[in-house]
Amino acid sequence: MKIITGLGNPGQEYNNTKHNAGFMFIDALAKTLNVDSWQEKFNAIVAQTIIGGNKVLLLKPMTFMNLSGNAVGPALKWYKIAPQDLIVVHDDMDLPAGMIRIRTKGSSGGHNGIKSIITCIGSNEFTHVRIGIGRPLPNWRVNDHVLSKFSPADKTAVDTAIEQLIPAVKCIITQSVDIAMNKYNPRKDKHHKNAPVKPANEAIYNG
Q1: Does residue 180 carry a pLDDT above 70?
Q2: How many structural domains does the chain have?
Q3: Which one is catalytic: 19, 90, 128, 145?
Q4: Is 90 a catalytic residue?
């Protein structure tokens, strides 16, 4: 069994905010899989489904972002799942809005939700699936940025990224994270010096 968790904050006031990109992904994935039977468990909303013959638990922590590990940790313990079978989808402030990046492991990079998960499960060796939300505007605080709504252009870019990530995450489940990284991570374009470079498995940052 594998767990796919998307990070965010519960409550209607946080819908479509940048910090809720992970929730947005889980909702989109659940829709494509026709998942509609959700339960409250592990300080989270969860639903079981099948992807390519593999049992998968979809999980949205209801703990608020900074305590995400209080939901993810108990779920891993209950199902006796190794960190390597955990996929965490979350926003990334150091990636332009709509850029995606998959990693097999990494530090929190400043993201409090990831920091909480690492602390609670005692490992950083889970798959990180990052959705770019861009940097704050000048004179904006990080909290103001991540808790703000997407601009129309950024919302379109993030919606497109989520559409791309659905087959990417299915690929992680049915094939491997390495295949998914090679297929879906951005690659360096020699003709554009500012094009994204596909780095090694280091952490970037996530706000």
Answers
A1: yes
A2: 1
A3: 19
A4: no
